[in-house]
Every structure is written in structure tokens, then in C-alpha cells.
Design brief:
Blueprint (H helix, E strand, L loop, with lengths): L5 E2 L8 E2 L28 H36 L5 E3 L5 E3 L20 E4 L4 E6 L4 E4 L7 H11 L8 E6 L7 E4 L13 E4 L6 E6 L26 E6 L2 E8 L4 E4 L1 H5 L7 E5 L14 E8 L13 E5 L29 E8 L6 E11 L1 H4 L13 E6 L14 E6 L2 E10 L10 E5 L4 H10 L5
Antiparallel strand pairs: 1-2, 3-4, 5-6, 6-7, 8-11, 9-10, 12-13, 12-15, 13-14, 14-17, 15-16, 16-17, 18-19, 18-21, 19-20, 20-23, 21-22, 22-23
Length: about 475
Amino acid sequence: MNSGSSFIHNDGMKKLPSPSRSDVKPQYIHHVAPNPLPDDNLFVPKHKDFKQRCVKFAVTAVICLLLLLLLVGILLAYYLSSACVRGVRCGDGSCVWESQWCDGAADCPAAQDEAHCVRLHGSSSLLQIYWTETRTWRSVCSHGWTRQQGRASCQTVGYSRGTYFKSGQQKTGDSEDGFLKVRSDLNPEAFILQQLEPSKTCPDNNVVTLHCTDCGRGVNSSRVSRGQLASLGSWPWQVSLQVGGSHRCGGAIISPRWIVTAAHCVAWAPSPAGWTVYAGIVDSSTGTLFRPAYSVSYIAVHEGFRSLTRQDDIALMRLAKPLDFPASSHVRPVCLPNVGLNFTASQKSWITQFTRTANGDSSHLTEAQVSLIDTEECNSSTAYNGRLSQHMICARDIQAGMGTCHADSGGPLVSLTDGLWWLRGDSVWGGPCREQNKPGVYGNVTYFLDWIYRQMKKHQVDE
């Protein structure tokens, strides 16, 4: 009998021998895993994927286009609401390229781009021309300069052709901006700027001075003010502006056809037909018997004039026919103040005005020397208390109680500089004589210089 262990079934069946360790083998059951169901999110047909990418691209493109249009709209709004970005504004708000400024061709509707290309500088009336390429004012070499070019330059400033007086020259120093010289291939019919070309130096070291009128020669400057009656011819630019045979306002001759006066003087009678101008007189009644009467063809009142505040209180009268300067030494223009002309308080300044005689029958021209007053002092609480603007100047009589408190409307205030008399102001108002802190107030002609030349050029008459 085998001694090894045996396996006995409960049902009493025959014992079977137990399997040895080596006979025992692991049993594996093969499980077949079912195939996974397809994922709808992972499986996308090629044509559907391409369509989605096209939609995304189209949406991105539309957004970018809208942003670009928004940016263009912002830039356009900025351009329209602000100053010209790469150009210069015309007077009506339109713009021209800076390269078109002072090129000899009128690109602005009212030719503003060619209105301020020529100027006179300082007491010597040095001719200067704006050179667009360098954005600088340049002096002009006198070598090759002619009377014809001088006359054309005066017309460009605003004077009529017949007012041209003379061209001169003065020595020049070094200039970082350079100069302009007459072109070798000169076309005398071309615009004056087109007849010139840039140059680092002048051939003869001289530059052009230009006098468009024979102005500023008059009274002996050594006289002392006493508030006295003026002598005939001592102030040859003074005129009497009359309505119905009566003196109404004073004025100053600046050219054979143009008179400077105050806007408030002519505002109440704006029709040129109502005015008569007398020049070369010192008595407003008897003097008219010996002098011709000049009619007025046009009156220009500054567009900014306000009667209440006397803002921009300046006006121009154009005569129907020019004054004849050579025929009378008693009639001559005063000089308009050039750019760069420096006035000081020590310079002699005078006022002239028609003052009524004792019997009141007529007005006689009187003269008085005055001292200029700082605008801040004149605007103090003890004087005009802030009523004065930047385009007003003040003058007080050297002798108290003389002159300015009865100044003519539009009467001239003049100063002597380098031997010539320059128009500093037109009378706006004067305080009562009893108020010692109320000096005379005048429109600052230097401030209105561009306006004066613009009006003269706009209504220029060839003669």
C-alpha cells in the first residue's frame, strides 16, 4: 500500500493519489474584451475640421478689420479736430502741406499760404524772406538785386506798385540759416521767391534793405513838449477825418491810399461815402479851404472789434485816389513798425490831436510828448483795473493835465527810432483830466501789423 497521502471522496469512491507540486500547472482563462465604442468627440471628418478653421479665421479677420477701421476713425477725428499734423492751416480751416507754403502758388482758398512770405525787419528795414525748406527767415544778398525785384517785394508785403521808394544795402555778418541770392537763370516775371536760391554766403557780404514808402521823416526831434499848437508840416502824416464838414476823428497816413484810425470812430458811420479826409492841415476849418478833400472808397474794421471793451479797436480807410506826396512837403506817411523793432521807455514818443479852440468853432492840431507806461501798471486797480488787453499800450503826458485826456479817436502815437518816426498806436480812449491815474490808451499797432498788411494786400490797387 502506498504510504503517500490519498484523496478520498465522500461518496466512498476509490482514492486517487495527490498530484505532486511539479504536476500542478496554473490555469488561465482567456477573456475577450469587447471592442470600444467610437468617441464622437474624437472622430471628426476632415471636411468638418476644415470648415471650423475657416469660420475661426473669418471671425478673426472681421475683428481685426473692425479694429483697423476704429483706429482709422480715431486718427481721422484727431486730424480733423486738431491742427494740421504735417501741414499748415489756411484761414478757413483747410490745410496745405508745409512744402506748399511760400512756394509762389496760391494753394489756400484766400491765398493765405502766400500772404506772409516777405517781411521788413528792424529799423533798417532789412528784407527777409521765409524759406520753406529750412523753415527760417533769410536775408537776401544785394548782388544782382534790381529795382524791379524791390517793387515786386513791396507788392508782396501789401503796398501798391507805385509806392516803392528804394532798395539799399548793409553789411552782413555770419548766419547759421544762410542767405538767399538772385538766381543766375533769372526769370523777371516769376514770383519773387522763385527768383531766388539758397546760399551759404553773399558774394559781396551785403544784404538788401527795402523801403516801400518814403516814410517817417518829419518833425525836429529836439523840441520839448509844452502841449503847444503844432506847426504846418511838423506831423505830415496827421489827417482830419470829417463827416458833414465837421472834424470827427484823427488818423495817420501809412501809404498814399491808406489811413489808420480807430474802429470805434468809424463803426457808427461805416459807409465810405459819408467821410472826407483832409491831409496837410493844422486847422480843421480854415485849413480845408486850401487843401483838397479826399473821398473814401473802402473802410476795413477789424473783425474782432468790440465796442464795449474796445478790443481790436483799429480800422483802415482806403482813399479813392492816392495822396500826392511829391507835390507837398506837408503830406508824408509815418512808418509802420517793422518786425524786430525794439522800443524802449526812454525813446521819445508824441501824440498829436485836433483840440477845439476856445470859441469852439474849429479844432487846431496840438502836440504833446508822452512817456509810455507798463501795461501791468496801467491795468492796476488804481488805473484801469484789468480792462486792458495785450494789444493795448498806455501813455502819460510828461506834463500833468496836458493832451491825452482829450485825445482824438484814432489819433496817432509815434516814437522816434534811428532817425525815423514809427506809428506805435491809435488812440482808443483817454481818462478824464482830473483823474491823474487814467493815462491815455492806444491800440498797439505792432500787434495789428499782419492784419494791416493783409487788408492792404486784399484790397490792393495797381497805380
